[in-house]
User: Which sequence fits this backbone?
């Protein structure tokens, strides 16, 4: 599962379905809410918030999900994303 912010709307991708949210929530607000509890969601891009349980691989400048979907990670954000993902994996192994 991941959330994408596009054209001032949030799109929730769940397995094979997509759901659009037309409310006034921003991706920043969703990130705060979703990371408060267990911290399973990772901001990989200004437009993408990804559930770390759904990450298959993290490699140079992209995330591959178990669904096969690949999402970009900006070069300047990659080191932080990699560190946060590794910390999460170590806590959950």
Assistant:
């Amino acid at each position: 599962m991941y959330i994408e912010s596009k054209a001032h709307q949030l799109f929730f991708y769940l397995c094979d379905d997509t759901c659009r949210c037309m409310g006034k929530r921003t991706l920043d607000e969703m990130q705060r809410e979703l990371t408060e509890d267990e911290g399973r969601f990772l901001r990989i891009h200004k437009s993408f918030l990804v559930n770390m349980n759904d990450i298959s691989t993290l490699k140079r400048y992209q995330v591959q999900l178990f669904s096969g979907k690949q999402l970009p990670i900006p070069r300047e954000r990659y080191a932080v994303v990699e560190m946060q993902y590794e910390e999460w994996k170590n806590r959950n192994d």
Remarks:
- The longest strand covers residues 9-14.
